[in-house]
Write a structure and sequence with these properties.
The protein is of the alpha+beta class. A five-stranded mixed beta sheet has the order 2-1-3-4-5. The longest helix has 29 residues.
Length: about 170
């Protein structure tokens, strides 16, 4: 990978890493009167535009297990995103595991596709293929304008081990 690619990967890992630090370590530091350099909250809902601005996307995001940046947990129209604080501890762990396993990764967007990304015709975050029993046929994708669709990678096929019935 070239230096530019290294920088982009570092940015994304730093961004998601910042999210994890905020959720796990900020409360602990506050209990001991400490600070983590700034009181600013991680701009989680701004991640799609930041990715588009840097001409990169995230692939393999565990969207069937976690909220996407800017997504609200509630189903009412009055629900608002709580930013990274809206993620559960389980979701943070899932994101951390996806990073460690390298199933979630950053990819450079082809310059020819940039306009499609900026006009929300191409997603900036693409979910990983969901399990065979997922309610939708494909993974969720997040676009720079904040809308989400279910046109990502198809569900995984059920393995014979999970479909065999013991006699």
């Amino acid at each position: 990978m070239d230096q530019e690619g290294d920088h982009e990967t570092s940015w994304c890992v730093f961004s998601i890493g910042s999210l994890i630090i905020q959720l796990i370590y900020y409360p602990t530091l506050a209990n001991f009167g400490g600070k983590f350099g700034t009181d600013r909250v991680f701009p989680w809902k701004l991640m799609p535009s930041a990715l588009a601005d840097d001409n990169i996307c995230i692939k393999g995001y565990p969207a069937h297990k976690c909220l996407l940046p800017g997504e609200a947990r509630g189903t009412t129209t009055n629900s608002k995103s709580k930013g990274v604080a809206g993620l559960t501890q389980k979701e943070v762990s899932i994101l951390m595991e996806s990073l460690k396993a390298k199933t979630m990764y950053v990819e450079k967007v082809d310059v020819k596709e940039r306009e499609k990304v900026l006009t929300s015709q191409r997603p900036v975050i693409i979910g990983e293929a969901p399990p065979s029993d997922y309610a939708h046929p494909c993974a969720r994708c997040l676009f720079v304008d904040g809308h989400i669709d279910y046109n990502g990678p198809s569900r995984l096929k059920a393995s014979s081990a999970t479909t065999k019935v013991k006699k």
